[in-house]
Amino acid sequence: MSEYAKDVLVSPEWVEEHLDEFQSDDPDYRLVEVDVDTEAYEESHAPGAIGFNWETQLQDQTTRDILTKADFADLLGSHGISEDSTVVLYGDNSNWFAAYTYWQFKYYGHEDVRLLNGGRDYWLDNDFPTTDEVPDFPAQDYTARGPFDGIRAYRDDVENAIERGIPLVDVRSPEEFSGDLLAPPGLQETAQRGGHIPGAENISWAATVNDDGTFKTADELRELYEEQGITNDQEVVAYCRIGERSSIAWFALSELLGYDNVVNYDGSWTEWGNLVGAPIEKGN
Fold first, then answer.
1. Of the residues 14, 97, 106, 210, which has the maximum number of CB atoms within 10 A of its CB?
2. Model's pTM, two decimal places?
3. Is residue 224 included in any domain, yes or no?
4. Tens digits of residue pLDDT in 116-170
């Protein structure tokens, strides 16, 4: 994986070799599966993996925002994670929610966090070991840092990006980008209007991964973005519907390619598509 800018992807083979450490009460290594629906986790998961529900545990249920620093620290500490732990995240949908959680870990300053390349599906499809046992690790005193707002975009930042011509990467499907759909089929429609933010380029999150869910090579990713004018000499804003798919783009650009100034607009279309008077465009 040395072709990437940062050493933040681990292979399933690497995780398998470290399963004893991931199952130890010692907090040096922690494995975390993040899904929007944890029923699959309850049926089977990698041995030692902690299960987080993205919707109920990694979101503030009142404000529809990411966890506060205190709540983030409480969540991690109560599951046996310390600020010095090497944390490997993985999940369903080619790591949608795991990538979002990675971004949230970085927002609160966790140093050593990585993604399992290929996610849950790759682990299962290739017959890596599983269990239904839920680990119970000793609680840790976790101290969060930050928040580091340099990797996050807010509504004002998006308005400023439109005015200044800063590149916006919309990672949703072409049908969502055009305004024909408000959400992927089967998922909740969270916006009143369809379309995209003016000036955005539609570079689907799916284009960043292979058929098996593993990330494409650095050269392939660089070509994908540079063909659409997304280069490392400018700020880049990524967004989707609720901020999870755009975390894949943020991860690819910031962590795998080493772009210097990439932000994730986690309010995404759920916020923008509901704002009165916010400019939108339709069509491709």
1. 97
2. 0.96
3. yes
4. 999 999 999 999 999 999 999 999 999 999 999 999 999 999 999 999 999 999 9
How many angstroms separate the most distant Cα atoms in the chain?
55
Q: Would you name the residues annotated as active-site residues?
A: 240
Residues 106 and 154 in one domain: no
- Measured from the Cβ of residue 86, the count of other Cβ atoms closer than 10 Å reads 18
Domain boundary among 147, 177, 209: 147
| Residue 2 maps to a domain | no
What are 103's two structure tokens?
Answer: 């971004």
Residue 115, domain member (yes or no): yes
Q: Which two tokens stand for residue 134?
A: 């839920």
